[in-house]
Amino acid sequence: MKTVKVKVLRTDPDRRPHSWVQDYDVPVVDGMSVADVLKHIQEEIDGSLAFYCSCKVGLCAGCSLRVNGKPSLACATPVSADLTLEPLAGTVVRDLVVKPRGRD
Amino acid sequence: MSLGYRVRTTGVLVIGSEGAGARAAIEAAKLGSAVTVLTKGLMGHSGATLCAPGDYAVNSADALRMGLPGDAADSPAEHYRDTMKGGREINDPALAEIMAGDAYRRLKDLADYGVPWTKLYKYGGHRYPRGATVGAVGKTGVTMMRALGREATRLGVRVESNFFVLDLVRESDRVRGAVGIDLETGEYALYLAGAAILATGGGGRLYDFTTTPEEATGDGFAMAYRAGAEMVDMEFMQFIPYAQVWPPALRGNNYFVIELVSLLDAHLLNANGKRFMPDYDPANAEKSTRDVISRACVTEIKEGRGGPHGGVFVRCSHLPAGQVDALAVEMFPGWKIGAISLSNFGVDPKTQDLEIAPAAHFMMGGVRIDTKCRSSLAGLYAAGEVAGGVHGANRLSGNALTETQVFGAIAGAEAAREAAGLPSIPKPSQRAVCQLLEPAETLLARPGARPVFEARAELRKRSYLEIGAVRSEASLTGFMAYLKNLRAEVDQGFGHRLRSRVLNQEWLRALEVRNMVDFAEMIAATALRRRETRGAHYRQDYPNSDSQPWSHLLRKVGEEMRFDTLARTQGGVGDRK
């Protein structure tokens, strides 16, 4: 098992400043996806992290975000090295979650 | 406790936005109702319908009329018979008959909304090819939801995404709407309605290993139960034996293996390399039914013959490579389903064994409904997985999508008619509303000791082992005792880092755990009282089936669970139609 550095662009509407980059060290094995990394952070390291994940089988497209700058699905993107995770363009509700279209 | 909340009024309130909810909303809007849909996730990007990899079940003769490769010898009556047989005779026969009878009309509706049905497959338990699909695996549910979403929008249905419904509002034996939280702002809201339709789907996430999406935490079962609605057959959770346990990115994915085992002669092996299905079902081996294969897998794993990640193995390497490749080309070109590509995660089924285990897949039980989708509470309807009775003790492939459309349409029409005939809706007292909001406020404001993610992980792990595919009096009573403590913990609150009301997922998880506790208690309590084995309910200590089929009724009276049984008529199958 190795450890990767994961940089997450976080946003908290109740905090000043609203946005900052937070680093997490995450243990990974072969065959893990970005969604697995996010779940590990939320469940084991920092419960305050918000992200959207529904089906985790590459169909709902709910887990869209930017991985190293590129729009991607968290569940379909394998992890092998350090990562930078940011929300898609749009109005951020919290962390990696943006408002659904038509609501911003 | 006095809490602020906004008030909205609508004609028909639909809770849940996917297969059944969207179809109900469309039907109610077509009849002129003002319709509001509340959904925990995002419409079209959540729920189980869009995860449906394949089939909508329709009798093969009608499929033929649609230009699909069906069989004229089939009929709705034959579809009904197979559904009853698959359900081990405890289905509500009137509901099963409606499902089979209306399947074709609702399939045509979907075609009218733009779903291009292209193929027809034969799956287990169906005597004819009845599984209508859209192209490759993974396309059907997604295509259906896009079409339903477009139609709902066209008809002016109002959708509130990221809205968590806490509870139904019930006054003088009538459901008058629901209260909940707008997750994006954290504000409480009361929705008053002439009629409400529950279409919240299932609760597979109660189990630590499941094929179901993140939202499936049993919310609808729990809120119906707390409101006093009668529930039916809550002990029947279907486990599907084909879900991958490894690697992590594919955990819970059953799409590849289900086709390899159903359509090819893939073998199931234990950790010693022994092919074990012939020991459990010599005649059918790997082609046996979901319940039998699940039990066999769990037995192998429990008796110490499981693999390093707690599963058994599927092997294809003995099959001609051309055969496996041909299946992939037809069903999942490039070994890719949706956005998931096996090679991205280092998996090659042609050369490697895949480690799999039974995963919680579908809840057969739920809110008891009549042929008009009415629950036992006036003003409350239910459709889709949250409703019980259609599938009995075991659901056949394809009948889930059919159920969403057939009963969604009925619920929408009936609720619209009822709402149109009602005088104005009396507003419940502020005190009554605040009482329903209070548990949510407590879970946010009162800091408990244990992090919610830890409590939730433990609940899910224990549920899988103790109220899962294999049950016994010891496992069920042990689980009930554990659940009593967890319920006390829910009342006291969990530990959390975030105090904000804005998209606070620790708060959301805590609220879901509250629902999972009610849901789990219904499963455990009914499973304990069913001292037989039937369909998805397997009791190690009672491996035989009772001679007379019966259904389990359950409702909450005060703080007590009240149980009842309902005799089902064995062999009555052929008498209908």
Overall structural class of chain B, as computed from helix and strand content, comes to: alpha+beta
Radius of gyration computed on alpha carbons of chain B: 23 Å
Provide the β-strand percentage band of chain A: 35-45%
Radius of gyration of chain A using CA atoms only: 13 Å
Distance, first to last CA of chain B: 56 Å
> What structural category do the secondary elements of chain A indicate?
mainly beta
Number of helices of chain B: 15
Overall average residue pLDDT of chain A:
94
State the distance separating the first and last CA atoms of chain A.
42 Å
Q: Describe the main β-sheet of chain B briefly.
A: 7 strands, mixed
Low-confidence stretches of chain B: 572-577
Largest interface: A-B, 39 and 46 residues
Low-confidence runs of at least 5 consecutive residues of chain A: none
Mean pLDDT reading of chain B: 95
Assembly state:
heterodimer
- Per DSSP, what share of the residues of chain B sits in E-state strands of 2 or more residues? 15-25%
What's the total count of β strands of chain A? Answer: 7
The SSE string of chain A, one letter per element, is EEHEEEEE
Helix share of residues of chain A? 10-25%
Count every helix of chain A, treating DSSP H or I runs of 4 or more residues as helices. Answer: 1
Apparent shape of chain A: globular
